[in-house]
Amino acid sequence: MAQAAGGGSSRATGVGVAAGGAAWFMLYLLVTVGPLLVAVTANPPPGRDLWTEISVGLGFVGLSMLGLQFAVVSRFSAVNAPFGLDAVLQFHREISYVAMVFVLAHPTIIFVTQPEMLEVLNLVEADWQARFGVLSVAALLVLVATSIWRRRLRLRYEVWRVLHGSLAAVVVVAALAHIEQVGYYVDGFWKRSLWIVMSAAFVTLLVNVYVVQPWRERRRPWEVTSVTPARGSSWTVELRPVGHDGLRFAPGQFAWVTFGRSPFAVREHPFSIASSAEEPGAVQFAIAEAGDFTSTVGDLEPGTRAYLDGPYGVFSYERHEGPRFVFVVGGIGIAPVLSMLRTLADRQDARPCLVVLGNPTWEEVPYREELEELRGRLDLTVVHVLEDAPEGWEGETGFIDGDVLDRHLGEGYERSRYFLCGPVPMTDAVQAALAERGVPTDHVHLELFELV
Ligand SMILES: Cc1cc2nc3c(=O)[nH]c(=O)nc-3n(C[C@H](O)[C@H](O)[C@H](O)COP(=O)(O)OP(=O)(O)OC[C@H]3O[C@@H](n4cnc5c(N)ncnc54)[C@H](O)[C@@H]3O)c2cc1C
Known about the structure:
This protein is α/β, with parallel strands linked by helices.
């Protein structure tokens, strides 16, 4: 579990983070091409033509990449710390296309160079090595298609997640069975040992994601203490630890939350922690009604069991120290910013903060009273931008754009650290406006409430 990033300068943190990132990347490359090198250099099977060798090589690389996907999504703190979970999940999505190309190249080259092999597609007559191969590739195609077109196929997130995990297991296990059945590359002590280690590692990663992590959460349960309505169809949900000392987190981080009797439930949702990092013994979440699960949050009863997996994320002022902080927020994007402001206030931090908040109407501005209260404890300026302003409103109207920023950023804006959280059109527009005004990109940090 990641700890709050307190202490150490941000430069030192940056160097460590870069070194950690480079080390993980090298390890990734090694594991990806390692099995291929051992398989083809140790003792190439006799009488195989070059195209077959190339196709097998590509298949091995693709399989290693797919197996490593379990490590990528395992939410290991050490892997996520240098990059942030969202960047890691982005990598997971994009690298899966590369892996798919490698995997598909394997049968494609064989069918083009040896058309008689197309017979293996007749699964009734084909042998088991062919059946496992076809099963693995077919499962991979369905997995990728259901991920790209999840919304168009109207697959509920929870259904998709179970399908995704199951198909991923089928892809990898069937591919390993295919290699075992083919036999060419798993004869001899070293190659067989490598195959066994690789298989065991992939299965261990699977068990870690679906069994070990939920089991760990089970030993650290939480309990809902209150559920309070907030503005903008949002709810403040407070949890207290049951029998343990709570969660240490950096302000701005998030956790995966499961409400109910078991952490093995599929209904696990990511929410930013909105409370102060100085109070790890009780955490608050600010949850807006968005869909089937969040619309029922108001029905949660005090005393309901909850499980937290976290903290995750790198969206925290602690990782990006600066002389002044600017938070640009849309709607419930205020949640991680509240945590940062509350923590700054509890730590009696004197650095100036500016919050620019975009919301549809004045009545729907979530946590505006809390922000008002924080103005008394911090050097804090709050600028509201309303799409539909009430009569007599003298503040900003419309959307947050370059003109709004020009009116409020003030002096020294290039040296400020920016934290953006809200709908993508807003964060895109603000990022572009800041870039146009010469704010260095490494001063701008983003949290998107979309992972899939
Ligand atoms: C890092 C992060 C922090 C977040 N913090 C907050 C917060 O502080 N407050 C808040 O109100 N919302 C937050 N969200 C968004 C919140 O997770 C979704 O609104 C919620 O999961 C939607 O669930 P639903 O079933 O009500 O809606 P649905 O209509 O089922 O889903 C709406 C969309 O939310 C996404 N989603 C749904 N379920 C999940 C899930 N289990 N895991 C990941 N994504 C999912 C999918 O893209 C889906 O299309 C955060 C999201 C992320 C990624």
